[in-house]
Amino acid sequence: MGAPRRGDGIEPRITVITLAVGDLERAVGFYRDGLGWPTDGIIGTEFEDGAVAFFRLSGGPILALWPRESLARDASLPPGPRSSTELTLGHNLASAEAVDRAFAIAVAAGGTPVKAPRATSWGGYAGYLADPDGHLWELVFNSDLIPD
Amino acid sequence: MGAPRRGDGIEPRITVITLAVGDLERAVGFYRDGLGWPTDGIIGTEFEDGAVAFFRLSGGPILALWPRESLARDASLPPGPRSSTELTLGHNLASAEAVDRAFAIAVAAGGTPVKAPRATSWGGYAGYLADPDGHLWELVFNSDLIPD
Prior knowledge:
Chain A contains three helices and eight strands. Chain A is an alpha/beta fold.
């Protein structure tokens, strides 16, 4: 391997999004049982810090749920605080009505309503809710970004 | 819209991953100039809290960089602390050598090495680095998950 040269780059790609969770079973319950997302459940328990759940999403990437202590230890970092404003995950829908419906489903599944869906300044329609670990989902209608 | 019924669900999909950043220009510089990722740069400055940069990734989803204060205000939450252990973004590569090379490129681009690439307990090869806002990337070779 030579030293990096000007013009070298890395392909723009995210293969896996891993969310830190405080209680893996609770988190899996929200996504699998509440939202109905496909998973083989908790696997990897034979490895130290290996217990994890993967969800294969439509159109990629993979969503992983991993205990915060495992994630931190694997990265050689101390576990940091929960912080809901580090990221949002956007789930686009085909209409404002679909946003309202998905929001109601996610709240019924145990999501915490953070901002009820409403018209946005840029002409869309969106709301926020938090998963059991405080990770924010934005459910959004954007006429320029309609999912397949 | 009726009330959610048992068996209702939400399609497993992430359209946009938005990372909170402390300095939007610095963050855009890392991903655009350092990693070479495609973007139209900072757009949306005509809207309140609208300044944002989007990167279209191979195989979806879209990566967005958004000032933490904007993200928090939009979600009606107080800005939380930086916390590097809330998530990791996994970028899979086709070999251990490709992990080493990508790691060197990302560090040369201004990423902070967090854990140098090494063999993992599960038979792969991986390292961690942080982007300018502390968001963790795992560069990883997993023979079961080779990117196209």
